[in-house]
Amino acid sequence: MALNPQVTNLIIILGMMQVSKKIPFDDPQVLMGVRVFYIVSNIIIAGIYLYLQSKINTKKDLTTLKYVEPPPMGSADEPKLITTTVHSYDLQQLRSLWKSQLMGVGMMGVMHLYFKYTNPLLIQSIIPLKGAFEGNLVKIHLFGQPAIGDLKRPWKAAGGLMGMAGQGDPKADKKSIGQAERAGSGGVKEE
Question: Is 143 helix (H, G, I), strand (E, B) or coil?
Fold first, then answer.
């Protein structure tokens, strides 16, 4: 039985915090080594995402994908019917991965360059790389796993802290789609 990715992240963070206490970050060579490790980690992630983009564009799967996107938590909006293609959906998911990665790099840049924190560099060299390899797009397009079961689109929203997501999971069952179509909530094809 495999551990939940959030549990393994917690284990890695706690372990790396203990390891980072023993690393002499005041030594310029050690600090440069950790910086290089962080940069190489991000270059690997960027390479994976660029490869995914080329694979998605090469496949160009134009299979229609219909699902009902739940409204954001706390919103009074109705669930919205989304009609798109597998190609567009995958590119949208890849765009959100890029945004997430760039936000992490930006935050790490501020923490390291402005606030002079060095310990998070080590942790942020491992966790995002691990997360990139655990992503659904990587499993399908890089590792060649079939898009069935948990990998069937649309994917469930990744759980946040303690497994709580910001909104419910998208629904692709016929009943939910039929209700959304009758309610007239969306249905416009996204490009």
Answer: coil
